[in-house]
Design a protein that fits this description.
By secondary structure, this protein is of the alpha/beta class. It contains 19 helices and 27 strands. The longest helix has 19 residues. The structure holds zinc ion. Zinc ion binds next to loops.
Length: about 625
């Protein structure tokens, strides 16, 4: 946009104001506007008038652009502080009182931008007479008012998705609202950094631009963490009801008794008074934002930090309960829930694991001898299997699971043979028909199996999963990136009669993180991985299980975590991932299953072992023919 166009835009805005016959009071603030005009349309207070006093810390955030020289406001926070409402109030203020082109960016067009436009912004417009009045009425064959783009007197608002270059690349805007920036793709293919593209839209407005970035953080060095630290880093200080000393609520000062979240209080830093739930919320009214870095390099950036202890809609009990759950999972080797809790409850970024992996020699050294004639020790209650399909062989790993997902590596085999031919698949039938000898005298079959369908044998894997569906054999495809360990399946139709087989997507990054972290545990119990002292559980198996490290890389200045292979062969880790996916697919109650085994009478005469099961070692599979 040229300078002339900028002037043009301003003249347009001025003309629009004159036409509308309304001149706003020059000192009206966003919070005052919201108190006067906005009706809440969602959440527990829907239908009531907006009151900034309900969560008074919002005033400083909404009104930050009224401070002299402020162009960029960054808010790093938990997920529950009223962020969407503050963004809408800011946009609505500009629609009604200070018209200008506005762009709101959500992480995705579908569903997030559509949701924001349809279910958050539109109801607010409909509920406010002043906004209804300024927003163009929808007319047939008129593109000026659609779900994602609306014009109003003197300006227009567009809602876009950071995953779409088209929705970021359009005309200049003066107000840019960037929601959940840590969930944006770091860059758009062929276009460069997503944030840079968005920022460019405001260049023409120079110092009059207003950019609001809000997000819960992800990793340290992520976009919202970076912008928070470029700003003056304000925290909301409140007076202790006992001694009056001003202080910020800190997680470090939260106290509770005996794992009971209902006893949670915040200890005053000065007098150790235990601030209870009623005091916690009541003190908000007397709070003020205090910058921790007032002498930052760029005074045009201000930043705010908030976490859930400030929210009148949360309770300390919920916060502590969430922490205790996350810590239990972490002790069992699953750090994902703790990361999420830190990001979305504390509003703090997480320092990524720098790739301190597990040494294979440590695994070999701690192998355990199981009792004679026992394939599965007492505490393991359920068996699952992961199968990797190569052109010339099937590889499999059988894992036993007990309460707390404590696990035992029970079996590891190679079934050689051209996998386009029936032979190796018939061998797999035999494995599925086999029952392992349990320490309590019973025999355990494999409960569920995941087979990788990527590679050259996709149709054969579908065939096999279809045929063995009753044995809970699942076709899976591994995908990296932030996704759950198992997603809901996509039905795949194949073959002449177009049979349907569910294909499950396995989030390999999350599953690998769990295995690598659990393999590093050193005390038996929740999450611990037991490895048998057998010939097949050798250096090679240990090396394969520990074959990847989590490393942090910068991609266009944004930190991302990626798994990096530190050796060529890693099938054992892949199979362990599939065995975990199989467990999560059938999600058995491991406590109940273990209890059942203890009460089940052992068979009086042991079932004879089928031939061919005498020796099992890598590459040493002997067919029982
Ligand atoms: Zn005090």
């Amino acid at each position: 946009m040229t300078g002339l166009e900028v002037v043009g835009a301003d003249v347009q805005a001025l003309l629009a104001r004159v036409r509308s016959g309304y001149a706003p009071p020059p000192d009206l603030r966003v919070s005052e506007f919201a108190d006067a005009e906005i009706v809440l349309t969602s959440g527990p207070l829907a239908g009531t008038h907006w009151q900034t006093d309900f969560a008074p810390y919002q005033r400083g955030i909404m009104d930050a652009f009224h401070e002299t020289g402020v162009q960029i406001v960054a808010v790093m926070g938990s997920s529950q502080w009223g962020k969407t409402s503050c963004c809408i109030n800011l946009a609505a203020f500009h629609m009604a009182h200070d018209p200008c082109p506005i762009l709101v960016v959500e992480p995705t067009v579908e569903p997030m931008a559509m949701d924001f436009a349809k279910h958050r912004l539109q109801p607010v417009i409909d509920a406010s007479p002043r906004l209804r009045d300024v927003v163009a009425k929808k007319r047939s064959r008129d593109a000026s008012n659609t779900i994602l783009a609306k014009s109003f007197r003197g300006g227009a608002i567009a809602i876009g998705g950071a995953n779409s270059a088209a929705s970021l690349a359009a005309r200049s805007v003066r107000l840019l609202i960037l929601d959940e920036v840590d969930r944006y793709p770091a860059e758009l293919p062929g276009e460069g950094s997503t944030l840079a593209i968005a920022f460019k839209r405001t260049t023409a407005y120079g110092r009059r631009r207003r950019i609001m970035l809000v997000s819960s953080p992800t990793l340290t060095g992520g976009p919202i963490d970076v912008w928070f630290h470029r700003g003056d880093q304000r925290r909301y200080h409140v007076p202790c009801p006992a001694c009056g000393v001003m202080q910020a609520y800190k997680w470090a000062n939260v106290r509770w008794v005996d794992r009971d979240p209902r006893t949670a209080r915040i200890a005053c830093e000065a007098c150790e008074h235990l601030i209870d739930e009623a005091e916690r919320v009541a003190m908000l009214e007397f709070g003020q934002w205090v910058p921790e870095a007032p002498d930052r390099a760029d005074p045009s950036v201000v930043s705010f930090h908030l976490w859930e202890a400030y929210s009148p809609l949360s309770t300390l009990a919920d916060i502590v309960a969430g922490f205790l759950r996350a810590r239990d999972a972490q002790k069992a080797g699953d750090a994902a829930e703790m990361h999420t809790w830190q990001n979305t409850t504390l509003g703090e970024p997480v320092e990524p694991d720098q790739g301190a992996g597990v040494e294979p020699s440590a695994l070999v050294a701690r192998r355990e001898a199981w009792p004679d004639g026992v394939d599965v020790p007492d505490r393991a209650a359920v068996l699952t299997m992961g199968v990797d399909v190569q052109d010339d062989r099937l590889e499999l790993l059988v894992v036993g699971w007990g309460p707390g997902e404590e696990s035992w590596i029970v079996d590891r085999q190679t079934l050689p043979g051209d996998t386009s031919q029936p032979d190796p698949w018939e061998s797999l039938d035999e494995v599925l028909a086999h029952e392992y000898r349990h320490g309590l005298g019973v025999r355990l079959p494999i409960t569920a199996t995941c087979i990788d369908s990527a590679g050259h044998r996709t149709a054969l894997v579908y065939d096999y999963a279809f045929r063995m569906a009753a044995r809970r054999v699942f076709a899976i495809i591994g995908r990296d990136g932030q996704r759950p360990i198992v997603s809901s399946p996509a039905p795949k139709r194949w073959g002449q009669d177009r049979r349907k087989v569910p294909l499950y997507t396995v989030g390999v990054d999350a599953a690998k993180a769990i295995w690598i972290s659990r393999l590093g545990l050193t005390e038996a119990g929740r999450g611990f991985v037991h490895i048998p002292l057998t010939d097949w559980a050798d250096e090679e198996l240990a090396a394969q299980l520990t074959s990847e490290r989590l490393v942090r890389r910068y991609e266009k200045g944004v930190p991302v975590q990626r798994w990096k292979k530190i050796r060529a062969r890693n099938e054992a880790l892949d199979m362990a991932v599939y065995a975990l996916a199989a467990l999560r697919l059938v999600h058995p109650d491991l406590e109940a299953a273990a209890a059942r085994l203890r009460t089940e009478p052992a068979p009086s005469t042991p079932t004879p072992r089928p031939p061919g099961w005498i020796r099992r070692r890598p590459g040493g599979w002997l067919r029982g023919r």
